[in-house]
Every structure is written in C-alpha cells, then in structure tokens.
Amino acid sequence: MYFVDEAIINLIAGKGGNGIVSFRREKNIPRGGPDGGNGGNGGNIFIISDKNINTLSEYKFKKKIIAENGKNGSNQNKSGKHGKDTILKVPLGTKIIDLKKNFLVKEMIKNKEKIIIALGGKKGLGNSIFKSSTNRSPIKKTLGELGEEKIIKLELSLLADVGTLGLPNVGKSTLIRNISSSKTKVGNYPFTTLYPNLAAVYNKQTNKKFIIADLPGIIKGASKGIGLGIQFLKHLQRCKILLHIIDLSLEIKEIFKNIKISLNELKIFNKNFNTKNIWMVFNKIDLIAYKNFYKKKNIILKNFNKNKKIFFISSKKKINLNNLCKKIFKNLKIY
Q1: Which end of the chain is more exposed for a tag (fewer CB within 10 A), N or C?
Q2: What are residue 93's phi and psi, to 5 degrees?
C-alpha cells in the first residue's frame, strides 16, 4: 500500500433530474389534468473521518469524483429517484482545502466527523405543481440544477501524541516495535522505515494508551531533498513529545555531530520545532562496555541543560523502556 499524505481531487455533485410536462390520458376523460412529476435531487458528496485509515492512498489515482445524477420525473405524478450520495473517507488529521477560494474548509480531528463538501443540484419541477385555479392546464416545467463543482486539496498530518526523529538506523522502529503491538519492519540498514507508521502503547494497569509515530530517518541535506527528504516531518507538528533517538554506540564526536544534523534539519523545516518538547533518547547501550558507557553518559550530561529530559536505553534488549514509557504517560497526564 502507498502512503499518501496529499491529494487534489475534482468533485462534481450530481445534477438534479428534470421535471416533465404530462397530462392524464384516461378513458372517458378527454381533457385530463396535468400529471407531470418532479425530478430527483442530485447526489451530494460527503467527507467522513475514519480512525481506521492513516493514508490518502485511495485518492492517489482518483482525480475526479462524480456523484450520481437525479432521475427525471415521469407521468402519473411520479417523482424521479434522488441521486445516490457519495461518501469519501479520510484519516484523522486531514485538512480539507477549497483550492478555488484558497480556504480551509475543515480539519477532521474527531472520528466519524461528517461534512457535506459538494451539494447536489436541486430537482426540476413537473407541470402538475404549477396547476392553479386560473391555469388548469399548465405546460410549464423546470430543469434540474447542476450540482456543485469543487477542486479540493486533502492534506494529512497524522495525529500522534509522541513522534520519533533521528538519523536512519538508530533504532526508532525497534523501539516502537518493543513498546507497542506494532509489526514495523526493522533491519540493520538505512531507511528501513519508508513512510510514517502509527502504533498504540498501552498501560497494562489502566488500559490507557498513547499513539506514537515512527518516521523515516533524517540525514544531512534532507531539507534539500537528499535521502527521503523532510516531506514527512509535518507529521510531527501535532505531537506533544518528540523522542530524538541517538545511537550511543558511536564515537562521542560522531554522536554530537549526529545530534546537530538532526536538529539543524528540523530547524530548517520549521523554526517552531525549537519550542517543542524534545526528549533525548540515547539508544544501543547494550553495545557498549560498562566503563565506556559511563564515560559517554557523564560527557553527555555535562553538555546538556539539567532540565533536558535524557534517557539511556536499549531498544533491542528492552533496557529502560518501561521507565521511558512511564515518563511519557506521566508527562501526557494519561492515567
């Protein structure tokens, strides 16, 4: 399945059915009255949010969506059938933008929110409705109206409480796999994660949960399109906590260099990320000898503000993962 977080679609609601001119033709009634029926309303186009999907891939190749037209009326005062409504499902966190008006129509935050985005055309009226005391045989009818036509852009920004960032192969996917029920693919090579994944982390005592997002790794020059670029960083914008995962098994100079690379690329993407609640999570402590670990740990603690939240873990061996999750639940006030 493709991960798609943007789509532009031309929406055309259904046209209303036409009313008709008709007169009764019954035995022994040579001059029957009008019995032309009304048309049916054109189908509307709705958008509904669905928590069970997290991509706009359905609209990758579907560039035009047309709702059903209303049927024409018929004799014997029979109204035409209304056009069937069309319902588009989108993930939570989808912005709906009217491109013609350059206007944000709605941001779909809650599950099963439903809005009408294109209104079907009104039905045409048959001649029977125009009968009056002064006009017993009207020949007037009206045509059904065209449905609304809109060009919209869908922009998805995944809803997650916690997001991960860092260079490729630092253990982000392994961390998420081991604290949640996620089946995220992991491997010892760059860009194991090719698109964002969402996973739920549960507190077994309270059955409460937080949602964590696993994003592809950032490399130097990502802001210029190198590697997988920074196209997915927008999915971190709503996160309350960002976990900056860092490989502690490298040389100390390389560690600080990698921290700088990730934070610089983040800053280039959006300066507001500087105000985010970023926790530093140093991973792969299982690969370091005891003395070397404490040496690196002391250097790191001396170089960062005491108020900075810093954790030392092993995603693979599940060391200190429970403590990290407890701190996240507490910070998010999910009890």
Answers
A1: N
A2: 95, 10
